[in-house]
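User: Hi! I'm working on a homework problem where we have to compare a predicted structure to a textbook description. Could you give me the structure for the chain below?
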Amino acid sequence: MRILGWVIGIVIAIVAIVFAIHNHQILTLDLWPVPFVLTAPLFALVLASALVGLLLGWLFAWIGAGRWRRLARQRGRDIASLRTTVAQLRTDKARAAHANGDGAGRPALPPPAPAAGTSAVARQP
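Assistant: Happy to help. Predicted structure tokens:
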């Protein structure tokens, strides 16, 4: 996938270079409401416009994904909290087992009885 990205990037760079070589005519851009006139080569204005469009698209996509980033941060905090709770419960279980003299860590309750109509012997696959 990384190689594909490089190939696409190189192709775009070659197209941009060829475009710049063939479009070096001077263009005067008059920004009407503002008393400002910009004179630059055609390729510079076109490539600058494309760059501004890419940056604005990136910005709007980043803003739009804010909800998902916030949700991911919240879920990460939830997972960290649950892991802490699980670790605490395991510690409490080990302490309780040690206090009862049960070094093997056997469960306090016996295993459940088999359901009615089934054999108590487990089948081997």
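For your comparison, note the following. The chain has a mean pLDDT of 85. The first strand starts at residue 26 and ends at 31. Good luck with the assignment!
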